[in-house]
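Interim report, section 4.2 (structural modelling).
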Amino acid sequence: MSSSTGPSADLSVRVGWADDAGPLAAVQLRAWGERYAGLLPPSALPDPADDATVAAAAARWQQSLQRPGDARNRVLVALDRQRVVGLAVTQPATDPDADPVADAELTELAVDPGERRRGHGSRLLQAAVDTLLADRFRRAVCWLAAGDDDTRHFLTGAGWSPTGRTAPSTSPATARSRSSRCGCTPRCPEPGPTRPPHGARVARVPEEAAGAQPPDHPPWPQERARIVRDSLGVGVATGAYGISFGAVGVAAGLTVAQTCALSLLMFTGASQFALAGVVAAGGSPLSAATTALLLGTRNTLYGLRMAPLLDWTGWRRVAAAHILIDESTAMGVTRDSRRAARVGFLTTGVSILVLWNTATLIGALAGAAMGDPRTYGLDAAVGAAFLALLWPRLQDPANRVVAVAAAAVALGLVPLTAAGVPVLAAGGVALLAGVLSRRPDPTEIPGEVPGERTEPEEEGR
Amino acid sequence: MTWTVLLVAAAGCYLLKLAGLAVPARLLEHPVVERVADRIPVALLAALVAVQVFADGSRLVLDARLAALGFAVVALVLRAPFLVVVFGAALVAALLRLA
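Predicted structure of the assembly:
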């Protein structure tokens, strides 16, 4: 259709109808693709070009528009003539600290990426605020992804202000009681009239009253202290089990010095355990190193997430790379500002570096002093350690299939091949599963998604 | 020999970390790459569990290590801390071997 280049009478906002379900779903999916690019892995996002995905989202919209869960659930659509180009959804706030009578939540505000800069967002927001006032709400909140600076600027420019609340993300449909080791689990968010994957919130009092801005963003020193405290907690818990690596490394036949060198130089738990395990099984040096390296590849993905948040260059980046592990990523990636991300990442990474190495030395000395590790069952502890590292990932059914297949491949090859080869060959199962699976499944990449606060994982690094 | 492996693998693991921070995201952000990378830890860790528990050289055996793994499963279901899982499993194997 022909469209004018500036605002005109053709542009409007009205209440959403059930007939809008299809266009709403399409616009929302396109907007998500742009909003979460760089925040979530592409595979985590529903594909707006996939008809089945759009149809499923449209069905959820249809149901919600026909039978709103609450009389004060409002869907507003922005129109260019009769074409849907944006949407806003408001409803009573559901946060635990919110008053569902007085507090509302702007759960979605999306404009078709091709229709930006034409005032649709402002019109939608204004209409949403008018609707909220008519519904007698006195305050509204909106959750944002930690890196969603565009929307943040838009809202703060419109008079909203940060509340300082953050949450690890988990989309409501896939909330898990435990997060992945990264502290947050980006699962495929379900498009539709639900809250998209957000991590920080912005609030506004939609009253005209002067001075109505809630000053509830904690001052930086307080926020910083809280992040440091949380990060140290994770650091202590994780660093302590360096003891088990020390004991296992010596039991595997490494010297105390070699065991400690691994913790100091390799400094990524799963790879360290793997190298020790393959060496203990009599595997070749090549297979031991390759297994360790393959397990280290996930840190590369963490780096991709953390690079824009940390924004370090030169020697800072070179140094930061050494402490780029599961926990430091988890404690950095959920923050809503750069300084907060840096504090979380650094505090966690450095505290683990210090404690993990100290604990490794203690464990290695104790292991060396004890004599034959088999007497104390330390050889059996290695399998348990691997299982504990694997455990959180088994919550995903597809991962359970991969795990069983990989174990079967490895056991089948044990009698036939040199030690070390079975484990590497099992890596082929990952390759096959990754190439064949069409389902978005970003199970272990740190990212963003909303929900209850999740507890830190007891997984290896 | 072991030192060489150890240092090469450690250097490689560091470079993998650095690559994530230094390489432009678009070079690696391909859905297939990400899916494979997501599955690698799962497949390798599962294979490592299997080999650690059932392999004795090039033979497959059932021994105290299986009981230790059973303990680990129970401990993990009960959300025991990592150290309890690992050293508890060792203790189970050690006690079985005494018996």
